[in-house]
Design goal:
By secondary structure, this protein is α/β, with parallel strands linked by helices. It has a single domain, classed as Aldolase class I (TIM Barrel, Alpha-Beta Barrel). It contains 9 helices and 8 strands. α1 runs parallel beside α9. Bound molecules: the ligand Cc1ncc(COP(=O)(O)OP(=O)(O)O)c(N)n1, the ligand Cc1nc(C(=O)O)sc1CCOP(=O)(O)O and magnesium ion. The ligand Cc1nc(C(=O)O)sc1CCOP(=O)(O)O binds next to α8. Pfam families: TMP-TENI. Its EC number is 2.5.1.3. It is an enzyme of class 2 (transferase).
Length: 213
């Protein structure tokens, strides 16, 4: 996963899903437009269920050229052949995660709204740094917040891509795009879109394109 010229869409799965039932809506969402990455984010699920979800959903993403990242678990990402892992500040040592993933898989690290955490993440081998939450989110209890100036500062200072996350929608994403976010990570904007996930992907991509004009 590398930052390109423009801002790209990074999709995260809904908090709860049945992998077999979810494969079809996922395929339709990914076929609706250019999605750079999909993160499997399931909480309070045992390893067997996570492995089953990976086995079913990873081919849906990878067959479409969409990078498949595992939330929280660099060990499982490496074992199962995922394209990478996203870890937070409470998810273990990033250096150990990088060791598990090897040099070629993507490692993303949550940095909240902290310049210090972002620079530390870069030094510890992150392939991208994630800032958030930028807006109120119903997807999780977000305990940290970020403002667009951190995206601007980061993109001026460093080459490493940045991800913006937290309550992002087609209606509010323009300042993040204009501040230099390389990726916008979303859950609700796509999976809770009133016209379906495919409409959610299209709306996000149209909003990103409009903000870049
Ligand atoms: C792209 C991206 N950014 C941030 C997060 C949040 O990670 P974390 O702080 O570990 O919180 P949980 O997702 O584990 O609840 C993320 N998952 N993805
Ligand atoms: C998983 C996650 N991490 C966040 C952070 O701030 O680190 S906000 C968030 C939820 C993102 O979902 P939605 O797009 O529905 O707001
Ligand atoms: Mg985590």
């Amino acid at each position: 996963m590398s930052g390109g010229d423009g801002c790209q869409l990074y999709l995260i799965t809904p908090p709860a899903l049945d992998p077999r039932a979810f494969a079809d809506p996922l395929a339709r969402a990914l076929d609706a437009g250019d999605v750079a990455a999909l993160q499997l984010r399931l909480k309070d699920v045992d390893d067997d269920a996570l492995k089953r979800a990976i086995e079913i959903l990873m081919p849906v993403a990878q067959s479409r050229g969409v990078a498949f990242l595992m939330n929280d678990r660099a060990d499982l990402a490496a074992k199962m052949g995922c394209d990478g892992a996203h870890i937070g500040q409470e998810d273990g040592d990033p250096v150990a995660a990088r060791k598990l993933l090897g040099p070629d898989r993507t490692l993303g690290i949550t940095c909240h709204g902290s310049r210090h955490l972002a620079m530390e993440a870069g030094e510890n081998g992150a392939d991208y740094v994630a800032f958030g939450a930028f807006f109120p989110t119903a997807t999780k209890q977000a305990e940290h917040s970020a403002t667009p100036d951190i995206l601007e500062w980061w993109s001026e200072m460093f080459e490493l891509p940045s991800v913006a996350i937290g309550g992002i929608t087609a209606g509010n994403c323009a300042p993040l795009v204009r501040s230099g976010a390389d990726f916008l990570a979303v859950v609700g904007a796509v999976w809770n879109h009133p016209d379906g996930p495919d409409a959610g992907v299209r709306a996000m991509l149209e909003a990103i394109t409009a903000a870049e004009r």
